[in-house]
Predict the structure of Putative hydroxyacid oxidoreductase.
Amino acid sequence: MKVGFIGLGGMGSGMAHNLLKAGYDLIVFDLDRDRGTEFVDAGATWAESIADLGRSVDIVFTSLPGPVQMKEVGLGENGLISTLHRGAVWYDLTTNSPTVVREVDVACRAAGIELFDAPVSGGPKGAKSGKLAIYIGGDKDSFEQHGSILDAIGDKVLYVGEVGAGNVAKLVHNCASITIRAAIAEVMTMGVKAGVEPESLWHAMRQGAIGRARTFDRIGDRYLQGAYEPASFALALADKDLRLSLELAEEHDVPMRLAELAQADFKEALSRGWGGRDSQSPMELQNERAGVTIKLSADEVQSVLDRG
């Protein structure tokens, strides 16, 4: 069985390496030829085009920036749908629009190709370590037949429902994360301005009922240290996810007042040229609005974590 992988960026590279480590015969492609060098050196085969890859594989993974790119890779001239053989399986790892996924699925079914939307959660570190949640949307029987390959790239492979459902789950997850961060920034600035040191305040938050679920831990490396570069999840990409979430909500006539407030901060941060900074960087805007400085050292953050 030959496996293809398209998109060797921050997320894709880690997952592709794990497929190689698991012993799969891997063929790779990326618009940036230089990204393929390390994979060829590790035993993969480089494809000169999407079409060359599509004609050569039984299973293909795509890890792309968003819906536009996924649709082009699938439906474009000499794309996957025109080159994969009948019976081939396509796992799209992109955080995508459920509507676009379902549209592409119609063309896949006509061509005899099994499409699964399979967005992942865990960031580049998780992609490298294999500690990823993978949300699966697609035919359940086919998933049970073909899904074992996903164990090579993730430790939480979750079947959610029919095609598109995987991205619904991912967008719900990311929208919640973004909105919660905005609320955390707001209450942190309130507490600091009211006279509590950031380290003590963060420690107190972590020990409360919500904090013991470790809701607040993810702000330690970024927001609390004011360290947004290099990004682990770039603001521009998070903005795409939030936009897709709000489009999904609008499609189903669901009001999203808190998420829209979070999006306003994202827009302001992007207007400042922060798109390449980490997705926690809009939290800094609340510090500015409140006139508060929150800046812990890495050692101070670790000291709180060590306290349990």
About this structure: Residues 69 and 243 are 16 Å apart (CA to CA). The domain at 169-306 is CATH 1.10.1040.10 (N-(1-d-carboxylethyl)-l-norvaline Dehydrogenase; domain 2). The first strand starts at residue 2 and ends at 6.
